[in-house]
Specification:
Helices cover about 75% and strands about 0% of the residues. By secondary structure, the protein is mainly α. Helix 4 packs across helix 6. The protein is globular and about 50 Å long. One of its GO terms (cellular component) is plasma membrane.
C-alpha cells in the first residue's frame, strides 16, 4: 500500500497557548522591572531558583559521575548566579534603559533570527545540536539586535557606532547561550529543560540567551571598570 494514499493528520498547533503564556511572561516581568525594589528582588530570586532547579535536573541526566555532577552544579551556580545578580544590579544601580536594552537585544535577536531563518533558510549552523538554527537566522538576529540598540542609543544617550556593533556582538552571545542549552538537553536526552511554561517548556528554555548575555555584559563592565574606561 502506498504510504502517501492517506493524508496524515496535522499536529495540533500550540501557537495560541505559546502566545498567551508569552504575553503573561512579558507582563509579569515588565511589572516586576517597573516596580523594582523588593518586588523585583523576589521576582529575580524566584527566577534564579527555577533556573538552578532546571540546570540541576539537566546535570543529573547528562553527567554520570559524582565529581562531574558537582562540577556542573557549581558551574551553574556561578553562571546563573552572576547573570541574576547583575540583573538586580542593573535595575537598582544603573539607568533602567540599560537593563531594558539588554532584554530588548535578546528579544530582537530571537525575532530577527526567526523571521530571517524562515524567509531565507539555507545552511544550518550546528544541525547535530540545534537543527533549526541557520546562518541566515544568525545574521538576521545580529541585524535586528544592532538596529534595536542603535535606535535605543539614539533616543537615550545619542547614537554612537559602538551601539549597533555591541548589539550585533550580543546577538552572537545570545545565540551561543541558546546552543549551549540545546547541547545540554541533547546530552541529557530531553526536549525541554522543564514544563513550567505552557507551550514554551522551562524557564531555562526561555532565558538561555538572556543568561549568556547578562554574563557577557557583566564581564564587559568589569573589564571596563578595571581598565578605567567606565
Amino acid at each position: 500500500m502506498n504510504d502517501n494514499s492517506a493524508p496524515l493528520a496535522k499536529p495540533r498547533s500550540d501557537l495560541g497557548i505559546r502566545t498567551a503564556s508569552g504575553v503573561v511572561m512579558m507582563l509579569v516581568a515588565a511589572g516586576a522591572i517597573w516596580l523594582g525594589g523588593p518586588i523585583f528582588a523576589l521576582f529575580t530570586a524566584a527566577i534564579t531558583v527555577g533556573l538552578l532547579f532546571e540546570w540541576t535536573r539537566l546535570v543529573l541526566k547528562l553527567s554520570s559521575g559524582i565529581i562531574g555532577k558537582l562540577v556542573w552544579i557549581f558551574a551553574g551556580l556561578v553562571y546563573i548566579g552572576v547573570a541574576t545578580a547583575f540583573l538586580v544590579f542593573l535595575r537598582e544601580f544603573a539607568e533602567i534603559y540599560i537593563l531594558l536594552g539588554i532584554i530588548g537585544v535578546v528579544i530582537a535577536t530571537d525575532t530577527g533570527a526567526y523571521f530571517a531563518g524562515r524567509a531565507f533558510g539555507g545552511p544550518k549552523i550546528a544541525p547535530a545540536i540545534s537543527p533549526s538554527k541557520t546562518w541566515s537566522g544568525l545574521c538576521g538576529g545580529m541585524a535586528m539586535a544592532a538596529l534595536f540598540l542603535g535606535i535605543e542609543g539614539h533616543f537615550t544617550e545619542g547614537f554612537a557606532l559602538w551601539q549597533p556593533l555591541l548589539g550585533a556582538g550580543l546577538a552572537i552571545v545570545a545565540q551561543a547561550g541558546d546552543f549551549f542549552e540545546s547541547w545540554m538537553k541533547r546530552r541529557a536526552g530531553v526536549k525541554d529543560s522543564g514544563t513550567l511554561i505552557p507551550g514554551h517548556g522551562g524557564l531555562f528554555d526561555r532565558a538561555d540567551g538572556l543568561v549568556a548575555v547578562l554574563c557577557a555584559t557583566a564581564l564587559l563592565v568589569l573589564f571596563l571598570q578595571i581598565t578605567g574606561q567606565w
